[in-house]
Amino acid sequence: MCDVRRYNTCDRAIQFYLMVRVKTIDAHAAGEPLRLIVDGFPAPRGKTMLEKRDWVKRHADHLRRALMLEPRGHADMYGAILTEPVSPGSHAGVLFMHNEGYSTMCGHGVVAVTTIALERGLLMSGDGTTVVYDAPAGTIRARARLGAERAGGAGPEPGAAGGPGGPGRASRVESVAFVNVPSFVLHGGLTVKLASRQIRADVAFGGAFYAIVDSEAVGLPIDVPHLPELRRVGMEIKHAIEAARTIVHPLEPGLKGIYGTIFTGPPEDERADLRNVTIFADAENRTVEIVAESEDFYRSRAAPVRVEACPLADASLIGHFGKRGYRVTEFSNVMVRPLDGAYRRQNQSGLPPGLSIEHVGREQIDLWALTVSQGFAEKGPVVPEIVEVMKMFALSPGVESYLARVDGKVAGGATLAIRDGVAGLFGASTLPAFRRRGVHMALLQARLARAAEAGCDLAVCLAQPGSTSQRNIVRRGFTVLYTRVKFERELELGNIAK
């Protein structure tokens, strides 16, 4: 049985971490979906489209997941965002995304984006029918064929110049054709060794690298009942080729790796020349790529890999981490409690003698950051980078910082972040010399009182299972919402360039 109250509490606690409104327009090209992001997404930075794509990967991938995955998206969702152009003569840049990551080029995406951009007046294209895009794969030249002007309808987006028909008017786009980037065969007739047999594949580029394989050669007809097997074999072919060959564009090193496998076969319709299906990375295999990218990042810094698993992750992720040599290093509980009228009315106990809690202004942030860092470091050295991270967090919008003093001496610190009626209690630590003197409980009590005063009706915080901190938190009415798991892997660092 579903506890609706617990679900709503979890949903609001998760929303606390990020509340963003993003505006999109959904379209399709012969049934292929395309969601164009038109507002609320950060402007990608970079001098090239590949740099812009990498910036989005690092800084806005959470928005891609929110827009492409369920419940807002689905397994076949494709997305796009228009950017500033990077080449003379281009009208806009375009980045494509999907439910597993990003692509360097998307044919149906170009058709749908051009349709939306022209009908909604999102771009000024000169003649009103031609749009030149900068994509990570290169320059794409699209041309639309227009129909009659539409009377009424949604009209241009706010601030847009109007569609091809002029201000306030828009013509319907009947069709779109485009000139793609130069295409070529990188490897023809490449021998691919699979688990049970050998096959031949062509590796070709047409905005992204694909392995092209005759479906009859692998013994699989191209039909719906065989899609699961086609997916499995397609990914097996992709990874087998990447393991044996370095696939990279001869002129642009940033275009590398095989995006997927295209199976071709005899047509079923006499008007067609062939039948095909395209297989690209599913969620599990995209996870493999993401983990590998993370490991490369840590390896370049001569550091062990540290990752945290979302409680909604598929259980297969645990097995994948085990195969790659990861070990569990930490569990942490996300705790939650309501701040209702009863809490606001209850009498708060006084602080122990000599103990005081004070709100920290900007002039004391350095002292606060050092204190909290020392509390987390126990008796070990404090790393300067950790102090800087603490300062950045304390100075974030909506965050309040607190110091605890015992007999006038700094004893610990903590933060309170308030957003949309939810109070986040984070960063609490006590210096070793002042443990077991009520510092943690006093910091907790002060922040809860402040949150209640600010009108919050929900509080969330983190604690290690079974710790003194969790016991203190439970005494204040918190319960466990879910448990997070952290993994770590020591990497072989012998090949790092010095």
Topology:
Elements: H1 4-17, E1 23-29, E2 32-39, H2 49-59, H3 61-68, E3 78-83, E4 92-98, E5 102-103, H4 107-119, E6 130-135, E7 138-150, E8 170-179, E9 184-193, E10 198-205, E11 209-214, H5 227-244, E12 258-265, E13 275-280, H6 283-300, E14 305-309, H7 316-323, E15 327-338, H8 341-345, E16 355-360, H9 365-377, H10 384-394, E17 399-406, E18 409-419, E19 422-430, H11 439-453, E20 458-463, H12 468-475, E21 479-489
Parallel strand pairs: 2-3, 4-6, 11-12, 19-20
Antiparallel strand pairs: 1-2, 3-4, 4-5, 6-7, 7-8, 9-10, 10-11, 12-13, 14-21, 15-20, 15-21, 16-17, 17-18, 18-19
Measured between the Cα atoms of the first and last residue, the distance is: 58 Å
Our count of helices gives 12
Shape: elongated
- Mean pLDDT value: 84
Which structural class is indicated by helix and strand composition? alpha+beta
Low-confidence stretches: 1-7, 494-498
What CATH calls the topology of the largest domain is Diaminopimelate Epimerase, Chain A, domain 1
Strand portion: 25-35%
CATH class of the largest domain: Alpha Beta
Largest sheet: 8 strands, mixed
